[in-house]
């Protein structure tokens, strides 16, 4: 994808020039409505039955419907007089018919009949709507909205996800969706933000008994389990449970109940088109941010567990009894609450601290985006 990179260039440090010169702002590198030349999760398979459904993603409105040879995604607006195709029906197999005057479109967006204009109508040969490649996997219908040809599905999604599509039943996948009322770029910055875990999430039940450092130092490291060209990772290299601050004194003062060490000693990775992964010793967490429109992000979250039938059964019990609430609701709710208070363009210039190198590294991936 050709990016409009705005002021500045990915890979260059933010310039601290005088007030008359333009400042580099890495926020501009990442497109407001997402990266289009990638497979993106569009809708859960179970939500698309006999009726077409509306899917909003990357600023587009699509009608998704089922045809005998698989799901189809076409533009939602009827080119006749603008009615919404998703409010129509599947009247003939493999097509969707507009509810207003019965114009009928196939999965390639071609008009096959303009029912009320008669069987001899010349309209069908003149009319079509945009259509997009689809793929069904992992309980989802995926859509490719790009202007380049779509890569094969398994090569176009993160390795972790491709491995989870294996059909040997050694993999168990739990999935959620959660809509956050903020631009997707805020949610991505949040996902890889190293420092916030030790302040915002300090009261989360998930880490209530953990030894949470007062501060950390981080270092970018090559991503081990995803493509290192399109993913970045960091490691915490230093941190103290409590520290003396020159003007405000010691913080935190007491943490006697925090005794658990390395509760989730995992590796992280964040990459294109908008995926954050946390690979722990026992399971992997995935959060995939799909921009719906400028101000709404749909987060698809997966918990992926690989292992023996017994290990998976134990994980299933743990998941439904504990993890789902403590991690996917309670912990994530803090990120949702916080990110919804941020307007991406609200600052004229950010003040990036050392730990924000993780955020910069994510934004810099714009340079290698398709
Ligand atoms: S607006 Fe769709 S058929 Fe007329
Ligand atoms: Fe967070």
Query: What percentage of residues falls in helices of 4 or more residues?
Result: 10-25%
The topology string of helices and strands comes to EEEEEEEHEEEHHEHEEEEEEEEHH
CATH class type of the largest domain: Alpha Beta
What do the pLDDT scores average to? 90
Query: Which fold name fills CATH's third level, the topology of the largest domain?
Result: Naphthalene 1,2-dioxygenase Alpha Subunit, Chain A, domain 1
Low-confidence stretches: 1-21
Q: Please indicate the percent range of residues in DSSP E strands (runs of 2 or more).
A: 25-35%
Q: Which distinct ligands sit in these coordinates? A: FE2/S2 (inorganic) cluster, fe (ii) ion
CA-based gyration radius: 23 Å
Number of distinct helices: 6
Largest sheet: 7 strands, antiparallel
- Structural class given helices, strands, pairing? alpha+beta
Overview of this structure, please?
This protein has 370 residues and is of the alpha+beta class. It folds into two domains: 39-144, Rieske [2Fe-2S] iron-sulphur domain (Rieske Iron-sulfur Protein), CATH 2.102.10; 159-368, Naphthalene 1,2-dioxygenase Alpha Subunit, Chain A, domain 1. Helices cover 17% and strands 30% of the residues. The protein contains six helices and 19 strands. The strands form five sheets. A seven-stranded antiparallel β-sheet has the order 11-19-18-17-16-13-12. The protein has a four-stranded antiparallel β-sheet with strand order 2-3-4-8, with no helix packed on it. A hairpin with a 2-residue loop joins strand 18 (284-293) and strand 19 (296-306). Helix 4 (184-192) crosses helix 6 (357-364). The longest helix is centred in the C-terminal third of the chain and has 31 residues, at 309-339. It is elongated, with a radius of gyration of 23 Å. Residues 1-21 have low confidence and may be disordered. It binds FE2/S2 (inorganic) cluster and fe (ii) ion.
């Amino acid at each position: 994808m050709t990016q409009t990179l705005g002021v500045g260039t990915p890979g260059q440090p933010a310039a601290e020039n005088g007030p008359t010169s333009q400042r580099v702002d890495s926020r501009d590198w990442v497109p407001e409505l997402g990266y289009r030349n990638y497979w993106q999760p569009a809708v859960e398979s179970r939500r698309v039955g006999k009726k077409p459904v509306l899917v909003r993603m990357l600023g587009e409105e699509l009608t998704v419907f089922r045809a005998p040879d698989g799901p189809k995604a076409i533009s939602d607006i009827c080119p006749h007089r603008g009615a919404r195709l998703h409010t129509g029906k599947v009247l003939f197999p493999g097509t969707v018919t507009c509810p207003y005057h019965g114009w009928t479109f196939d999965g390639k967006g071609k008009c096959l009949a303009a029912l009320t204009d008669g069987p001899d109508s010349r309209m069908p040969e003149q009319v079509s709507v945009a259509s997009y490649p689809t793929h069904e996997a992992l309980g989802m219908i995926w859509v490719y909205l790009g202007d380049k040809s779509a890569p094969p599905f398994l090569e176009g999604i993160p390795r972790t996800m491709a491995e989870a599509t294996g059909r040997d039943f050694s993999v168990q996948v739990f999935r959620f969706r959660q809509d956050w009322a903020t631009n997707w770029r805020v949610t991505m910055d949040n996902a890889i933000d190293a420092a916030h875990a030790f302040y915002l999430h300090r009261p989360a039940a998930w880490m209530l008994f953990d030894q949470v450092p007062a501060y950390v130092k981080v270092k970018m490291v090559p991503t081990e389990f995803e493509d290192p060209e399109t993913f970045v990772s960091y490691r915490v290299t230093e941190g103290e449970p409590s520290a003396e601050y020159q003007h405000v004194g010691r913080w935190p003062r007491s943490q006697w109940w925090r005794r658990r060490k390395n509760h989730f000693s995992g590796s992280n990775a964040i990459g294109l088109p908008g995926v954050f992964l946390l690979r722990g010793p026992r399971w992997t967490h995935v959060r995939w941010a799909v921009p719906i429109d400028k101000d709404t992000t749909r987060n698809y979250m997966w918990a992926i567990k690989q292992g023996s039938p017994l290990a998976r059964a134990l994980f299933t019990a743990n998941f439904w009894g504990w993890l789902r609430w403590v991690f996917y609701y309670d912990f994530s709710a803090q990120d949702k609450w916080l990110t919804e208070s941020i307007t991406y363009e609200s600052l004229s210039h950010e003040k990036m601290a050392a730990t924000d190198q993780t955020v910069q590294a994510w934004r810099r991936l714009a340079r290698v985006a398709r």
